[in-house]
């Protein structure tokens, strides 16, 4: 489906399917774009490493993963309520690559309802390089961060991407970190507690690099907020 037709389809769906579940198209719950059964069936990210959000097997509370024990990221904890698989991965692809407002709204609501009141003072969205932003025409992290900042009544502070890095696809964890070294800049003086916002975390290398820049700008406690985390490979 072409990018140009996706917004039209979204508008039609919103008018043609009021009160319908975004996943099964059955009747949705009250004031929610999903039904109870589909909500329970989503790939919730539990348990997970509390530091980087990496999904873990089993049940109960998550524990620090081996990667974080060997080298902790520059951010302090991760809030990634979903795993990037199944219906969630489809929604995120529609949101990220086709700028689907319907998918974005559903994902925003899922994240919002999983978010306990966080003790942060500002949000920072993961930026795109100017060239890539012009090519894509849509920054999903900025879209999410702007709406979360409005709901939480928090400032949204801009970061810059000073290097147009290679695609992270196919790179292992060390290569991803090397690819993003000194890729971000934050010129504003940051408050003590902030949250970084992105759509998906794979290894955490992007958020780690941005967190380093934010610490240089004064942040002391940094959370990573993403819609989803990729599962164990």
User: How many strands?
Assistant: 8
Q: Biggest sheet: strands, sense, closure? A: 6 strands, parallel
* Content-based structural category: alpha/beta
Question: What is the first-to-last residue Cα distance?
Answer: 29 Å
Which value, in Å, is the CA radius of gyration?
Answer: 18 Å
Given the structure, what is the number of helices? 9
Outline the fold blueprint.
Elements: H1 6-16, H2 36-41, H3 66-70, E1 77-79, E2 82-83, H4 86-98, H5 101-114, E3 122-125, H6 130-136, H7 140-152, E4 156-157, E5 160-161, H8 173-179, E6 184-185, E7 193-201, H9 205-216, E8 221-229
Helix pairs in contact: 4-5, 8-9
Q: What report would you give on this structure?
A:
It is a single chain. This protein is α/β, with parallel strands linked by helices. Helices cover 38% and strands 14% of the residues. The protein has helices at 6-16, 36-41, 66-70, 86-98, 101-114, 130-136, 140-152, 173-179, 205-216, and strands spanning 77-79, 82-83, 122-125, 156-157, 160-161, 184-185, 193-201, 221-229. Strands 1, 2, 3, 4, 7 and 8 form a 6-stranded parallel β-sheet that branches. Strands 5-6 form a two-stranded antiparallel ribbon. Helix 4 (86-98) crosses helix 5.
Brief descriptors of the model:
233 residues, alpha/beta, six-stranded parallel beta sheet, two-stranded antiparallel sheet, disordered N terminus
Brief overview, please?
With 233 residues, the chain is of the alpha/beta class. It has helices at residues 6-16, 36-41, 66-70, 86-98, 101-114, 130-136, 140-152, 173-179, 205-216; strands at 77-79, 82-83, 122-125, 156-157, 160-161, 184-185, 193-201, 221-229.
């Amino acid at each position: 489906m072409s990018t140009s037709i996706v917004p039209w389809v979204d508008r039609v769906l919103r008018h043609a399917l009021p009160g319908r579940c975004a996943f099964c198209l059955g009747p949705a719950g009250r004031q929610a774009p999903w039904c109870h059964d589909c909500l329970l069936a989503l790939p919730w990210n539990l348990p997970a490493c509390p530091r980087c959000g990496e999904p873990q097997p089993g049940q109960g509370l998550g524990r620090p993963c081996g990667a974080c024990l060997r080298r902790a990221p520059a951010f302090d904890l991760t809030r990634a309520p979903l795993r990037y698989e199944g219906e969630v991965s489809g929604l995120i692809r529609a949101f990220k690559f086709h700028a689907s407002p319907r998918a974005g709204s559903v994902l925003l609501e899922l994240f919002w309802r999983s978010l306990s009141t966080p003790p942060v003072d500002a949000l920072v969205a993961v930026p795109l390089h100017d060239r890539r932003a012009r090519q894509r025409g849509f920054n999903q992290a900025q879209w999410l961060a702007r709406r979360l900042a409005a709901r939480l009544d928090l400032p949204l502070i801009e970061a810059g991407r000073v290097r147009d890095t290679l695609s992270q696809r196919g790179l292992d964890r060390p290569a991803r970190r090397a690819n993003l070294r000194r890729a971000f800049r934050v010129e504003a003086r940051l408050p003590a507690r902030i949250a970084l916002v992105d759509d998906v975390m794979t290894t955490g290398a992007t958020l780690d690099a941005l967190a380093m820049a934010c610490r240089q700008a004064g942040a002391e406690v940094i959370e990573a907020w993403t819609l989803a985390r990729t599962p164990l490979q």
